[in-house]
Amino acid sequence: MKATLIEITTRENLRRAQAQCSRHVSAIYFPFSIHTQLEDSFPESPVRVFVYPNISHPKMFFMFKDNEFIKPTLALAQVSGTSMNRLELIDLINEFRTRVFGAKRQPHLVIAEEHLIKMYGVAMRLSSSDWTNNDLRLSLFYMTESQKKLAMTTPLPNVPHGYYYDEIEPTEEAEIVNNTWKHAGAGDLEQTMAKLLRLPSSCVRFNGKPVAFEMIDPAGFFNNQYVFEDHRRKGLGNAVEMDLIHKTLSIGFSPFKTVAKDNKIVLDASIANKLWTMWSDEDGNAKTIVFQTWRCD
Fold first, then answer.
1. What backbone phi and psi angles, to 5 degrees, belong to 193?
2. What does the DSSP assignment read for the chain?
3. For the chain: N or C, fewer Cβ within 10 A?
4. Which of 185, 192, 184, 189 is nearest to 213 (CA)?
């Protein structure tokens, strides 16, 4: 008998799922996403959440974001300490895809830990041979409770003379922000504008112009930290990140971010930063989160 997903539809059970996911780094993308659904705080990305085998004793969570401006986003998370049969997992992935896409062959993004992404790829290729994918491999950084407390008592860094903290103007400056993001594609300008309108962000200005910034994605992760070249090596990247950490904690959520495996400078700096913990296995090896984009040729 094939495994069956349960869709979580009531507010009470969404809150239960939110609380359960908050206890597991593996499900770190779920709590803030569920919050946006409960509060209707990011209507451009409505969320559906599924659980297996049930809400009381979950092993797997699945999430679907039917984004208005960009390709749909899927997220998979296995609860820490549980085990899954591979064939059972493939059945779950196929059921999940059928329930959110139906018969449509739709380009999409999948976010999951590496071992789940591998199983997703198996399921995709068993269904059809004309799907292709691109993978972005990342390390995940999060904050422990003690790091959160330390962050809240750590003042914002002083920025050099002439620079000052401010907010990005969403309608006028979204294009500036979006144009710096190397992964931007169709619809991302509108998505960036919505992020800046509805979610926390940070900015440092010089002569009235934004020269460093960072924002939060509707899944909760820190997104698109950027400092213009003429203003680098002044600590502005750290400044906007610290400002965003304060803003995220002040609304009751845990900061987290991903760093590309090949971005050695930022990776090393994040590992050395006392406010961040890199998600690792029991032997201290960094775990890998994959952002996998699928398209049908």
1. -60, -40
2. -----EEE-SHHHHHHHHHHHTT-GGGTTHHHHHHHHHHT--TTS-EEEEEES-SSS-SEEEEEE--SSS--EEEEEEPTT----HHHHHHHHHHHHHHHHTT----EEEEEEHHHHHHHHHHHHHH-S-EEEEEEEEEEEE--HHHHHHHHHSPPPPPPTTEEEE---HHHHHHHHHHT-TT--TTHHHHHHHHHHHS-EEEEEETTEEEEEEEE-TTS-EEEEEE-GGG-SSSHHHHHHHHHHHHHHHTT---EEEEETT-HHHHHHHHH-TT-EE-B-TTSPBP-EEEEEEEE-
3. N
4. 192
Residue length of the chain: 297
Report the alpha-carbon distance of residue 157 to residue 230 in Å, rounded: 19
pTM: 0.95
Q: Distance (Å, rounded) from C-alpha 156 to C-alpha 243?
A: 6
Measure the CA–CA gap between 215 and 177, rounded to whole angstroms: 9
Q: How many Å apart are CA 36 and CA 5, to the nearest integer?
A: 22
Please write the tens of the pLDDT for every residue from 79-113: 999 999 999 999 999 999 999 999 889 999 999 99
Angle, helix 236-250 to helix 145-153, in steps of 10 degrees: 110
Domains parsed from the chain with CATH numbers: 6-142+284-296 (3.40.630.30), 145-253 (3.40.630.30)
Q: How far apart are CA 111 and CA 33, in angstroms?
A: 13
**Is pLDDT of 1 > 50?**
no
